[in-house]
Amino acid sequence: MKRLAIAMVLLSSCCYAQTSDEFQPASTNVWGAQYPRVDSTGRAEFRIKAPSATAVKLNFWSNPKLDMVKGADGFWTATTPPLVPGFHYYNFVIDGVDVNDAGSHAFYGGGRDASGIEIPEQGATYYLPKDVPHGAVREIWYFSKVTGSWRHAMLYLPPGYDMQTKMRYPVLYLQHGGGEDETGWIKQGDANFILDNLIASGTAKPMIIVMAYGYARRAGQVDPDLTGKPFGSPEMMKAMQEMSQAFEDDLTQALIPYIDSNFRTIADRDHRAMAGLSMGGMQTFQVTFNHLDLFSYIGGFSGAGGMMMLRSAEKPDLKTAFNGALADPAAFAKKVHLLWIGVGTEEPAQMHAGIVKLHDAFTEGNVKHVFYESPGTSHEWQTWRRDLKDFAPRLFQ
Amino acid sequence: MKRLAIAMVLLSSCCYAQTSDEFQPASTNVWGAQYPRVDSTGRAEFRIKAPSATAVKLNFWSNPKLDMVKGADGFWTATTPPLVPGFHYYNFVIDGVDVNDAGSHAFYGGGRDASGIEIPEQGATYYLPKDVPHGAVREIWYFSKVTGSWRHAMLYLPPGYDMQTKMRYPVLYLQHGGGEDETGWIKQGDANFILDNLIASGTAKPMIIVMAYGYARRAGQVDPDLTGKPFGSPEMMKAMQEMSQAFEDDLTQALIPYIDSNFRTIADRDHRAMAGLSMGGMQTFQVTFNHLDLFSYIGGFSGAGGMMMLRSAEKPDLKTAFNGALADPAAFAKKVHLLWIGVGTEEPAQMHAGIVKLHDAFTEGNVKHVFYESPGTSHEWQTWRRDLKDFAPRLFQ
Fold first, then answer.
1. Is B136 helix (H, G, I), strand (E, B) or coil?
2. Is residue B198 within 8 Å of B204, Cβ to Cβ?
3. What end-to-end distance do the CA atoms of chain B give, in Å?
C-alpha cells in the first residue's frame, strides 16, 4: 500500500500549506494550490518551477506577454497590475513552448484545455452560487445522423423541473465561441448560477438551456487538404461553409428533435431562443435566420451577423442581408420577439466597430433590437456573463 | 471582426488536416488534434514542438519515462510499444518541467488537470456509448455545513428517471482516487456508459450513482503547518485523520441527506452502497464500517481496509479491525449484503499484496466476500472499469 500512502502524503502536504499576506489562492485553482493567487485590487501572482529555463513569460491571451523573473530556488514569478474582473485564459511560455499552469483547473479555450484565473468583481454576485433553488446541470449524449457520431451537449434544467412533472418549459440554445466547446458556458460562464439567481428573483422565466458542441463534420465527409490555402480562398471558404452547414443541420435536425422528445419543452418557435458568443453569435444568426420557423428570440454576444459579415467591411444592406428577413421591419418585429446584440467597450477596435456597424444598420433600418455595451470589458467571459444577465430576462415574457 | 475571422481560420485549418497511415487520432484528443495517435496494436505516437529544448521525455505515470527524439522541424516525437488497453495519464517533461499535451483533453489526476490517452481494448464495448437508453449525468452543488462551503458532485440518474416519476431508486456512492476528483468516474471511468449498458442488458438494476468530491476541510479549520513533518509523524497523521473525518461527516451529514431529499431514492441501508478506488476504497471502508446503519453494500477497488491499513504490514485482526464488525462473520453476512474487493494483477507488488492479504484474512475468518482480479492491468482505470462492471450487477438484487 506504499503508493497509496505516498498519495495521501502528497495530498496532505499540498493541502495544509500556509498562506501569507493579503493574496489568496484563486477560486479557479485545483485543491490545495497556493498559486496563482489574487488580491482585492485584482492583482494576480503567478509562479512556476523551471530551473533550467532561460526565459519564461506569462501570457494572458488578450494582452502583451509579461516577463517572469527567476529566483534562486528555480521558481519564476510574476505579479500583474490589477486585472479586469472576470475569467481570463492564460498560459506560461517556457523557452518558446506554451504550457499550462498545474495550479489551475483547465478550461477549454483556444482549441485546448487551457489554464484560467477568476478575478472577483467587487460587488458582483449575480454569477455566484447562492442559497436559492438550483437548476440541474446535465450532460447528454445524442446520436446524430448528420455527423454519424455520438455528440455531447450540456443542459440546464430550471429549479423545480424534477418535481413539477407536468410543467413544460421554453428553451434557449446557447453557443460557445471559436476554440471553446460546450462546457464553456457552465465552467467559464457560470450560466447555471446566473439563471438560478435570475429565476429566484423573478427576473427571468424558468427555462431550459441547451449548450451544443459547435463543431460538426458531416458523416462520411472527406476532409479537404487546405495546406497552403489562404483565408478567403475558395477552398477555405467552401470548407468553412460545409462545417457551419453541418452544425446547422445537426442542431436543427438532430439536437432540437432530441431535446423536444426527451425533455418537457414547449416545442414551438415562440418558446425557442438562440444566442451565442463570438463564433457562436455568428452561428446563431446563420441558424435562426435560416429557420425563423424554429426560433423567435435571437442573441449575438460579441459576434453576430452570420458568415456573410466576415466578407465585408460595409454596413449590411438590410434589403438583402439575412435572407431579406429585415427588409420589412414591421413584419420582422411581429415575427421575432427579440433581436439582441452586445459588445464590450474594450473589445479590439475592428470587433467593436463590427457590432456597432450592425447596430447602426438596424437603427437606420428601423429594425427593433436591443444593443448592449459591457463597460470596461473586452472579448472575454465577463462581457458574456453580463450579456446573458441582460438577455435572459427578456426571453419568453 | 478580424479576430473572429482568424479564429475561424485556425478552426478550419486545424480540422481539415490529412491523416496518414494506420495511426488514428486518440479518442481523448481535442477537436482536430492529429496527435497523439494510436494504432490497432495499441502503440501510440506523440509529438510536441519545442525547438529550443535540450531534452524532452514522455512520461506515462506508471512507467519509466521515454526519451523523445528531436526532428529538424523542432518537433519532438516518440512512439510507444503496444500499451495496456484503457486510459492512461501522461505528460511531457521539457527540460525538467512537467507540461500537458495541448492535443489531449485534460483529466483530473495527480492533483492537476493532466493529459490522458485512451487505448481501445479490442472487443471490449461495455464502456462505450451504444444505442441503448442513456441515463442522465448531472452536476450538483450543495451547501455543506460541515465544510462551510458549496461543494460539487456528479450524479448518474438511470434511464427512465425523468419519465417514471413515481419510481424510487437505490443509490451507489462511488469515489475517485487520491489526486483525482469527482469528475473521474465519468470522464476517465465512463461509469455512465458502463451502467447504461448493464441496465439495458438487464444485468444491473437501475440505480442512482453519486460521485462526491473526496477532499474536505472542516468549516473554520486552521490548516496546520506541516512543513518538514515526515509521513507517520503525529502532526501529519492528525491532519490526515481530520481531513478524512471531515469527508466522512460531509458525506453522511450533508450529501446523503441532500440526495435523499432532492432525488427519488429509496433512503434506507438496504438500498445504499458505497465503493471507491484506491484512496476512495479506503474512504469507503472507513465510512461504511463507521455507518453500517447507512450502508449494506461495500466495495474496495485497488484500495480497501480504511486508514488503519496504512499503518501495518500485518494481516488485520478481524476480531478488532473494522470496529469489530467482522468478529462474528455470520452476523456480518446477514447485515452486509456484499463485501467486494478487487485489484489488478499487474499492480505494484506491495499494493497487490495488500489487497490479497485482506482477501486472505477475510477467507480465513470466514467472512463472505467477493475477490476479483483484473487480468493484465495495473493501478489504472481499466482495472476500475472492470471492477465496476463486476460490482454493479451484484447490487440491490
1. strand
2. yes
3. 60
**pLDDT digits 0-9 by tens, B135-181:** 999 999 999 999 999 999 999 999 999 888 899 999 999 999 999 99
Q: Exposed, middle or buried, B231 (CB in 10 Å: 0-12/13-18/19+)? A: middle
Cβ of A112 within 8 Å of Cβ of B30? The answer is yes
Helices (H), chain A: 2-15, 184-187, 191-200, 234-249, 256-262, 279-290, 329-335, 349-364, 381-391
DSSP secondary structure string for all residues of A83-133: PPSEEEEEEEEETTEEE--TTB-EEEETTEEEEEEEEPPTT--TTS--SSP
- Residue A286 DSSP SS3: helix
Cis preceding linkage at B82, omega within 30? no
pTM, two decimals, is: 0.90
Give the CA count within 13 Å in the CB-facing half-sphere of B353.
11
* Alpha carbon distance B280, B301 (integer Å): 8
B9 near A CB under 8 A: yes
Lookup result for grid cell 468516474: B185
Surface-to-core class of residue A81, CB atoms within 10 Å of its CB (0-12 exposed, 13-18 middle, 19+ buried): exposed
Question: Any CB–CB contact under 8 A between B128 and chain A?
Answer: no
Rg for chain B, CA atoms, rounded: 23
All three cell numbers of B188, joined, read 476517465
Residue A296 scores a pLDDT above 80 = yes
Taking each helix axis from N to C terminus, what angle separates B279-290 and B234-249, rounded to the nearest 10 degrees?
70
At A190, phi and psi to the nearest 5? Answer: 55, 35
Q: Which residues pair with B209 in a beta bridge?
A: B156, B172
Delineate the domains of chain A, giving CATH numbers in brackets. 20-119 (2.60.40.10), 136-223+235-394 (3.40.50.1820)
Rounded Cα gap, residues A330 and A77, in angstroms: 59
Task: Tell whether the torsion through CA atoms of B8, B12, B13 and B14 is positive or negative.
Answer: positive
Length of chain A, please? 397
Q: Which of B2, B16, B175 to mutate to test the interface with A (most CBs of A within 10 A)?
A: B16
Q: What is the pLDDT of residues A372-386, one digit of tens each?
A: 999 999 999 999 999
SS3 A42: coil
| Cα A139–Cα A288–Cα A352 angle in degrees, nearest 5 | 95
DSSP 8-state assignment for residue A29: B
Contact call for residues B244 and B307 (beta carbons, < 8 A): yes
Would you tell me how many other CB atoms lie within 10 Å of the CB of residue B324? Answer: 13
Write out chain A residues lying below 8 Å of B241, CB-based: none
CB B281 within 8 A of CB B303: yes
d(CA B125, CA B254): 36
**Cα separation, B303 vs B287, whole angstroms:** 14
- DSSP secondary structure of B296-312: SEEEEES--S-GGGGG-
Give contacts of A51 with chain B, Cβ < 8 Å: 96
* Per-residue pLDDT at B322 exceeds 80: yes
Q: How far is CA B13 from CA B8, B30, B200, B371, in A?
A: 8, 14, 41, 51
Q: Coil, helix or strand for B331? A: helix
Give me the DSSP letters along B195-229: HHHHHHTTSS---EEEE-------TTPPPP--TTP
> Closest by alpha carbon to B147, among B243, B226, B240?
B243
Dihedral sign computed on CA atoms, order A202, A204, A205, A210? negative
Residues in chain A with CB shorter than 8 Å from the CB of B53 are 95, 97
Quote ipTM for the complex. Answer: 0.85
